[in-house]
Amino acid sequence: AIKANWEGYEEMRLDFVRNAPKWGNDDDYVDQILVCCLKEMAKHSREIKCTAGNNIPVLPENVTGNIHFAGIVGALPNGRRLGDPLYDGGISPGHGLDKKGPTAVLKSCGKIDHITAGRAFLLNQRLSPIQLAGEKGYKLWKAYIKTWADLGLDHIQFNIVDNATLLAAQRNPEKYQEVIVRVAGYSSHFVDLNRKTQDSIIQRNIQKLG
After folding, report:
1. Distances (CA, A) of 167 to 109, 113, 153, 188
2. 167 — phi, psi (to 5°)?
3. CA distance 205 to 34
4. DSSP structure class, residue 156
5. 187 - beta bridge partners?
6. Which domain holds residue 25?
7. Is the pTM of this model over 0.70?
8. Residue 183 contacts by C-beta under 8 Å, 6 or more apart in sequence?
9. Which among 58, 68, 3, 10 is positioned nearest to 34, based on CA atoms?
């Protein structure tokens, strides 16, 4: 099925997409797979020296590489097809696959040793601008950031903008020149991004706090 890019296996593919455990839901079974992979990568990286004699660090960040390499990396067992975007950032869940809320995402990421397993673990999240409005919204966000800090995580960045605004910006870019989004490690005016990167940001889950 994977060699065929899931063609002719759509029922199986959808079963894998919908029902197989996914990173970012505080599921130890699948989370430990990533944790073990990172540990092995870090272990071997310490055995490799660059020309200056230093270790080559593990930096699991792809910035916008999830778009660039989408047409290079073949189909995957999680139901992703050749051409579909890869996970963005570095340790962000797949688009729409973080189904148990934002804190579950943090708990999954907290299982990584952010000191010995590598650095620059980019985590992208989208939050609701309506929920975060006003003093109540600020307190929710502050409590969430405290949870992030308590778990000893390395990095997190947010987009706090609704889909209606981003879709309108795609239709009428001249009217939304001021909309700035966080891509992955850098910010950009939304209308200056290529369509695939725009779509990738829109497809990220808008998480609700509390």
Report:
1. 30, 37, 32, 16
2. -65, -40
3. 21
4. -
5. 182
6. 10-207
7. yes
8. 63, 64, 193, 197, 201
9. 58
Query: Is residue 50 a contact partner of residue 56, using CB atoms and an 8 Å limit?
Result: yes
Tokens representing 66 are: 């999830």
In a domain, 1, yes or no: no
> Hey, what are 196's tokens?
């695939």
d(CA 128, CA 207) in angstroms, rounded, equals 7
Distance, CA of 173 to CA of 169 (rounded, Å): 5
Give the tens place of pLDDT for each residue, 102-149: 999 999 999 998 877 776 688 999 999 999 999 999 999 999 999 999
Q: Is residue 3 part of a domain?
A: no
Model confidence at 46, pLDDT cuts 50, 70, 90, reads confident
Q: What burial class does residue 54 get, using C-beta atoms within 10 Å of its C-beta: 0-12 exposed, 13-18 middle, 19+ buried?
A: exposed
Residue pair 187/158 in contact (Cβ under 8 Å)? The answer is no
Whole-number Å distance between alpha carbons of 151 and 199 = 30
Q: What are the b/e assignments for 113-144, b being 16+ CB within 10 Å?
A: ebeebbbbbbbbbbbbeebbeeeebeebbeeb
DSSP conformation class of 3? T
pLDDT above 90: residue 185: no
Total count of domains within the chain: 1
- Beta-carbon count within 10 A of 198 CB: 21
Contact 109, 141 (CB under 8 A): no
Which residue has 């020309």 as its token pair? 51
Residue 57 lies in a domain: yes
Q: Please report whether residue 2 resides in a domain.
A: no
